[in-house]
Each structure stands twice: as structure tokens, then as C-alpha cells.
Design a protein that fits this description.
Bound molecules: nicotinamide-adenine-dinucleotide
Shape: globular
CATH topology of the largest domain: Aldehyde Dehydrogenase, Chain A, domain 1
Number of domains: 2
Structural class: alpha/beta
Number of strands: 18
Oligomer: single chain
Radius of gyration: 23 Å
Helix content: 25-40%
Strand content: 15-25%
Length: about 450
């Protein structure tokens, strides 16, 4: 069996060497999940809820251990990793609460009554990326388990360690064997095996648009259900009537957090021309306070990028443009890249169109509100974005006109686990989080009961 070598991006040291699952191993895990499904779907919602609550609490109890593992493996500051793991626990508890209210309807129809039942789909294959490893996995696992499905998660090969721990914790708190399974392998081998497997009823994917396209195409062969959370090129639109200093101060967090490896990274800064100089002045000051370095050191805001391959891609894109502002990053071992602002760039430039997935953003000036909306909508993506203005009517007008699944006004927040999250256009389809996510893991069945003679 081949191996997967897992690195620590801040040091380039080996963190773990794991056996790599191939097609046969994926099949064995899917069969285990398939065997577990009939019993799991029959577990009463209240009992499923209890187990999900226990899982959330057990994650909290191991928060420090899991956060350390995530911070080392993904190269993220320990404070952020603690927040993510704490949020994972919350997501499990949230769906524990939701499952008991996940019920069908009774619909009077001619000659009788129609009843709807929300049935689990079966074995759900889940494929996740490396930027928020356990957090993004929990968005799929929690509602899927709550709705009575069995899960086979293939985490990103670069960051599988916390997912492996999650499987162990689930068994410890009492989930039956085979209900939550983790399989570690490469995307084009184990990931594809999961997508192609006839006993996998649905694929829930988060990752790049290119891989999402491959998954949707292959899943179409047997009408497998698919939800896709894909790439983004989110615009932050700053109007002249905004609190410019506040908007500029928010940019490092909105762009460089997680080293820009965030599908909601505001990788385009659309700034109204008459306040551009003022905005850039404040941004330069804000960037001076943004610290890149050892994820475990005090006061560090940003770690390295995930791999040398990722750094090469970021470097190549930055070299295709003009650097306007740049912070500093450590040298030596570790996949470091400094926080960078490009521009002003043309809307058709590669850096204005392609997802960079590094600590980089591009300035695109605009003159009118109409132009701002056109620019915001001028990529293939539609995941997230922000609107900075003190004119309430404009804020809503623009929010309605921008083609994006999530938008924030005078804020750069994208994710609240109690509210839906997902993309428009080539950022994907389906919604995660919030009350509706359970529907993505359920089939609606209608049963007609005849009551006339
Ligand atoms: P990726 O698409 O390369 O890989 C994601 C996962 O897919 C990994 O587990 C990988 O092993 C697997 N995979 C790769 N090829 C596959 C194939 N042919 N068949 C099945 N599985 C395959 O993405 P990445 O580089 O890990 O993550 C970065 C991407 O994820 C970015 O595009 C980012 O925008 C996106 N992302 C989206 C969201 C969202 O919610 N919309 C969140 C985070 C990341």
C-alpha cells in the first residue's frame, strides 16, 4: 500500500505518514457504511440528537488537542484553530437541536390525505479541502448524521489528521460502527472511487470549481445527488460614503486571514475612485499591524500557505501583476508568502478573474454604483462579498443586484452556522449550515392514505 506523507507547513517537517486508501479500501469502507445504514436510519431522532450533543461536548473536551493538531497541520494560528474546533462542537450541537424539528407534513388531498416523510438518502460521500479541515467537514457530517445518513468522509490528503480523530471520538461517545467513517486517500483515486461508487447515494463536496465540475460530470452517470461548495472571487465594494477608515481596517482580516486560503477571501477590492487614496493610506497602516509568523507565537495573525505548490501558484499570479502594498513574512523553512495588495488592476486581468487562494487581493477602482455592480458580477464566481456604505437604500439595492450566495453590509462576515451558506454561478449549488441543510441530506417521500370508500 502506498503512503500519504503529511507535512507541517510552518516547518516543512513530516507530521505523519499514513496508509493511502485505494479503490478497494474505499469500497470496504462504503460497504461498512452501507451495513450500518438500516439500523442508523431507524434510531429515533431524539437518540440521534443525544449522540450528536455528546459528540459536540467530547470535541469541546478535546479542544486543545484538536486545535493544536489543526494548527500544526494546516499552518494556522492557534487562536484561529481554537475558534474553528469550538465552532465544530457548536455545529454538532446545532444539528442535534434541529433534528427533532425535522418533520414532514400532513396534506389533505382529494379522497384522502398525503403525508410527507423526510427519509435519509443513504451512504453520503463527503470530500473536503485543506483550508478549514474539520470545520468544513462538520458542515456536512452533522446535518447528514442528524437526518439519518451514514457518512464516508475523504478529507484533503494534506490535512487528514483531525478527521481521523473525529472518527475515533464518534466511536467513543457511542455512534455505532460504520455510521461515521473516514478514508484517507488522494483525490483522483479515493475521491473518484467514492464519486463513482454505486452504493454512495450522494456526494457533498467542498473544493475547487475544476474538481467540482469533474464530480458533477461523473455523478451524472447514475444521477447521484451532489452539492458543491466551490471557489470564489469575492468583491468588497467600498463606496465613498462609507466609513473609509473602518472599511480599510477590516481588510487584513477579510483577505489575509487563513493566509487568504479562504473561499470567501475578499480577493477583489472595488473602491470608489474619489476615496481610493484615503482608503489606501488607512490600508497601509492596517497592514503594518498584521503579523505573519509561527502559528504558535503570541500575536501572530497569519501562518504560511499550505504547500510549496500553493506558494508557487500564488507567486506566479502575483508576478503577472503589479504590487501596490506588501507586508513581510519569515524566510527559511516554511511555505511563507507576505500579505500583498496588487493594483490598480484591470477587471479582465488574471488576478481579477482567477481565484488566487493566498494572502493577496487586487484593487479595482470604480466611479458609479452601476459600474460597481457590473464589476462585482464580472467573474464566473458568486460566493460571498461585502458592501461598505452608510446609505441604507444603496446597501440593499446593491445587495440584491450582486450575484452572490452570501453578502454582508458594513462587515466582511460570511459564515454563521445558524444561517445558510453557499454559492451562485460557478461557486456551486446547494446550501450548507442553517436550518435548511437537513433538507440536503433528506429525500421527501409522499405517502397517500385513502380515506373515502
Ligand atoms: P481541491 O478541489 O483540489 O480538493 C478538494 C478535495 O477534493 C480534496 O479532498 C481532494 O483530494 C479531492 N479531489 C481532488 N480531485 C478529485 C477528483 N477528481 N475527484 C474527487 N475528489 C477529488 O481543492 P483544495 O485545493 O483542497 O481547496 C481549495 C479550493 O476549495 C478552493 O477553490 C476554494 O475556493 C474551495 N473552497 C470552497 C469552499 C466553499 O464553501 N465554497 C470552502 C473552502 C474551500
Amino acid at each position: 500500500m502506498s503512503s500519504i506523507v503529511v507535512l507541517e507547513p510552518a516547518t516543512e517537517q513530516i507530521l505523519a505518514t499514513l496508509p493511502e486508501a485505494g479503490i478497494l479500501e474505499v469500497d470496504a469502507v462504503v460497504q461498512r457504511a452501507k451495513r450500518a445504514f438500516p439500523k442508523w436510519r431507524a434510531v429515533a431522532p431524539a437518540d440521534r440528537a443525544n449522540l450528536l450533543r455528546k459528540l459536540g461536548d467530547a470535541i469541546d473536551a478535546k479542544l486543545e488537542f484538536l486545535a493544536n493538531l489543526e494548527a500544526r497541520n494546516a499552518g494556522k494560528p492557534i487562536g484561529g484553530a481554537r475558534w474553528e474546533i469550538g465552532s465544530v462542537a457548536q455545529v454538532f450541537r446545532y444539528y442535534a437541536g434541529a433534528v427533532e424539528r425535522h418533520t414532514g407534513q400532513t396534506i389533505p388531498v382529494a379522497g384522502g390525505v398525503g403525508m410527507t416523510f423526510l427519509e435519509p438518502i443513504g451512504v453520503v460521500g463527503m470530500i473536503t479541502p485543506w483550508n478549514y479541515p474539520l470545520f468544513l467537514a462538520s458542515w456536512k457530517i452533522a446535518p447528514a448524521l442528524a437526518a439519518g445518513n451514514c457518512c464516508v468522509l475523504k478529507p484533503a490528503e494534506l490535512t487528514p489528521l483531525t478527521a481521523i480523530e473525529l472518527e475515533k471520538i464518534a466511536l467513543e461517545v457511542g455512534f455505532p460502527e460504520g455510521v461515521l467513517n473516514v478514508v484517507v486517500g488522494l483525490g483522483h483515486v479515493a475521491g473518484r472511487a467514492l464519486v463513482d461508487h454505486p452504493d454512495v447515494a450522494k456526494i457533498a463536496f467542498t473544493g475547487s470549481t475544476a474538481v467540482g465540475r469533474d464530480i458533477a460530470t461523473r455523478a451524472a452517470a447514475n444521477i447521484k445527488r451532489v452539492t458543491l461548495e466551490l471557489g470564489g472571487k469575492s468583491a468588497c465594494i467600498v463606496f465613498a460614503d462609507a466609513d473609509i477608515e473602518k472599511a480599510a481596517n477590516s481588510i487584513p482580516g477579510a483577505v489575509f486571514d487563513n493566509a487568504g486560503q479562504d473561499c470567501c477571501c475578499r480577493s477583489r477590492l472595488l473602491v470608489q475612485k474619489n476615496v481610493l487614496d484615503q482608503f489606501l493610506g488607512h490600508l497601509e497602516t492596517a497592514m503594518k499591524n498584521w503579523k505573519t509568523g509561527d502559528p504558535f507565537a503570541d500575536g501572530v495573525d497569519m501562518g504560511p500557505v499550505i504547500s510549496s505548490k500553493q506558494r508557487e501558484r500564488v507567486t506566479e499570479l502575483v508576478n503577472s501583476s503589479t504590487v501596490l502594498l506588501q507586508g513581510t513574512a519569515p524566510t527559511g523553512a516554511g511555505f511563507w508568502f507576505p500579505p500583498t495588495v496588487l493594483g490598480p488592476v484591470a477587471p479582465t486581468d488574471r488576478v481579477a478573474q482567477e481565484e488566487i487562494f493566498g494572502p493577496v487581493t487586487a484593487i479595482i477602482p470604480f466611479e458609479t454604483e452601476t459600474e460597481a455592480v457590473e464589476l462585482a458580477n464580472s467573474t464566473i464566481y458568486g460566493l460571498s462579498g461585502s458592501i461598505w456604505t452608510q446609505d441604507g437604500a444603496r446597501a440593499f439595492r446593491v445587495a440584491r443586484a450582486v450575484e452572490s450566495g452570501v453578502l454582508s453590509i458594513n462587515s466582511n462576515s460570511s459564515v454563521r452556522y445558524t444561517a445558510p451558506f453557499g454559492g451562485m454561478k460557478q461557486s456551486g449549488y446547494g446550501r450548507e449550515l442553517g436550518p435548511n441543510a437537513l433538507e440536503a441530506y433528506s429525500e421527501v417521500k409522499m405517502v397517500y392514505y385513502r380515506t373515502d370508500d
